[in-house]
Amino acid sequence: MGEPGIPWPMLPEADFSSFDEQERNDYKIAARAVHEAIDTVEPISAGFRFHLRAMTRVSLLHSFARLEMRACSFLEITVHADDRSMDIIESNEATGFLASKLQQYGYLSH
């Protein structure tokens, strides 16, 4: 469900249709590693900062960011390798997308 007042179908969705099989596999590996590494999530201006456990390989973070931004052109992802965090910012037309997904995955309460 979207933000109050915004019907869910109006929020953008990820589009993996241009990914070949190898890219889909790479995305699954990187996304799983990032999800398993999330320690805390905090709101920042227009998005969220993900604090990740130190065991996360920086190369996986960058791979996830590159592939996620390709599938979700409405997201901007910045990896901060020095402190193992990642900022995900959503464009104006995607406002509510991240919060909805984070609630769905249990990182934010409703």
Descriptive labels:
alpha+beta, 23% strand, 4-stranded antiparallel sheet, 3 helices, Gyrase A, domain 2
Please summarize what this structure is.
With 110 residues, the chain is an alpha+beta fold. Helix content is 35%, strand content 23%. The protein has a four-stranded antiparallel sheet.
Can you offer a commentary on this structure?
This protein is α+β, with helices and mostly antiparallel strands and 110 residues long. It has one domain (16-104): Gyrase A, domain 2. 35% of the residues lie in helices and 23% in strands. It has helices at residues 21-37, 58-71, 97-104; strands spanning 38-44, 47-52, 75-80, 85-90. It has a four-stranded antiparallel sheet with strand order 1-2-4-3. Strand 1 (38-44) and strand 2 (47-52) form a beta hairpin. The chain is globular, with a radius of gyration of 14 Å. The protein starts with 20 loop residues before the first helix and ends in a 6-residue tail after the last helix.
